[in-house]
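## Example record

The block below lists the input lines for one assembly entry, exactly as stored, with component labels intact.
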Amino acid sequence: MNERELLRQMLRVRRFEERCVELYTQTKVRGFLHVYIGEEAVATGVMAALNDDDSVVATYREHGHALLRGMSARSVMAEMYGKLTGCSRGRGGSMHLFDKDLNFYGGNAIVGGGLPTAVGLALADKMQKRDRVTVCFFGEGAMAEGEFHESMNLAELWQLPVLFVCENNLYAMGTALRRSESETNLPMKAASYEMPAWSVDGMDVLAVADSARRAVDAVRGGGGPHFLEARTYRFRAHSMFDPERYRDKAEVEQWRERDPIDLLLAKLEVPDDELAALEEEIRVEVEDAVDFAENSPDEDVADLMTFVYSPSSTVAGRLS
Amino acid sequence: MTTISYREAVREGIRAALAQDDRVFIMGEDIGEYGGCYAVTMGLLEEFGPERVRDTPLSESAFVGAGIGAALGGMLPIVEIMTVNFSLLALDQIVNTAAALQHMSGGQFNVPLVIRMTTGAGRQLAAQHSHSFDGWYAHIPGIRVVAPATVTDARWMMPTALADPDPVLIFEHGGLYNASGDLEDIGPVDLDHAAVRREGGDVTLITYGGTLPTAMSAADTLAADGIEAEVIDLRTLRPLDDATFVDSVRRTHRAVVVDEGWRSGSISAEVSARIMEQAFYELDAPVGRVAGKEVPTPYARHMEQAAIPGVDDVVAGVRAAMRGE
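Predicted structure tokens for the full assembly:
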């Protein structure tokens, strides 16, 4: 992927989520809303290293991952609106974005809960001798969970084709890394499972893309699971219900100086008119998604019980 | 018809599935080289190899979750959790992902996963190895919960469970593994219906799994006194087959539910509620319950036996129902 495209994708995610925050304050979007603003370089760089049929498992902060993987802004926005035309029929909302056609497995809102799924997807690929890689995103908070350690061990033990990407934004909700981990060198934890592991500047999309490319190639080449820590920062609150009592404004400002979009812009020297055209193209895409969501129908309440079980199951229709 | 043990019947169900479909594999703790904690999987590693009979680390959450992922990736995994007690370590994966994924993804992802586990008390294994959470799992929408009580069900529920597009939990009561019975060569059985294991017109005894033999013995004792109990084996705890037990109660007008699980919020409570909802005016006595005592299961044999339903408890429960109590 060329550098202009990386810029376009990061801007797209940024503007989409800025609009989501507005819509949240207008009560168009409800529930929990966790935005990725500040962290865009991570998923943008990693996704650029994937093939179309690779699998992705993400967390509840996954609007960017969904868009970057190829889901339409319409599909994601309509889901945030809780509309039938959303990717999950409005049943999942912001935290549960899925797309089967893109092998995008969401959308897991239990911290650490997606890692075992990723291990299993990789196991299926290995057993069926498919040339796929599964990428699993999670925050550094997940590394305190048992599921992280169980999954690392199993993946390495069985030499599964999975790339673990830790998006280290330094805070598990409001708990700083140093307050929750006895060992804050995260790649060392992965390395203790004999897994190749390293860190990358998560604000530098080119560095992330380069690291991810090396890791994905190694995994696909039969090198077993790999671990990548992307050091990044969340510019906004954890969710919309976060007074941010746990960090200094000065710290946030310091990180904002390393905004991944600004850093890339500085490198690329994009002419103003080109940037303006790009912003306009993205604005149109986002507003189209908002219009689409606004004008989409709700799911019929009569369908509430569908897909608790598969339509082909003999259980379907038997429960109330 | 041949006579085999429940253990052999479960093994034959797994063995046949592995032989018939390359997508099927089994994983769990000590299922391969050790041969299975309860020897269910003995010999399968030698027959099918380590790719398809996978020993796992002691990581219930990871290997149950890996089963979910593998199912999403096109495989048909059978996950053995050594016992229901350890399944608590995998609850996140079972409840938050396996059961919920299809609905919360708007129907995109179904999870064709089979999870087997040993359940129940009665073997002096004390408080942490004697749970009976079968009914508790039946609380959860999105999964199917079955409990084979006979060797035929132990053998023939497996192919149906594997053909199910959604997660199926199979509860095998530890007290049944050594029991022998006649294996009927009937092919895959449905997982939708309860079975009438003994016909009778005076009272309906409703149970499942490990307490079916208890209920059957109680019915024999009662028959000697001229009380004919109809014994219903629920077989499937989710979805419950209300029609079979409600129809029976409409004929007998009395019901006693036998359930090893703790009484409060149990499957016996659910069955009782459904009888009340659907056959209240048919009842000649309140629905009786013979359930596990609400205590962590003790080790000492006499204490453990006092904590779980026995034949005498069931007989007493039926006599109370006959008196209209």
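The CA atoms of residues 147 and 171 of chain B lie 5 Å apart. Residues 2-183 of chain B form a domain with the Rossmann fold fold (CATH 3.40.50.970).
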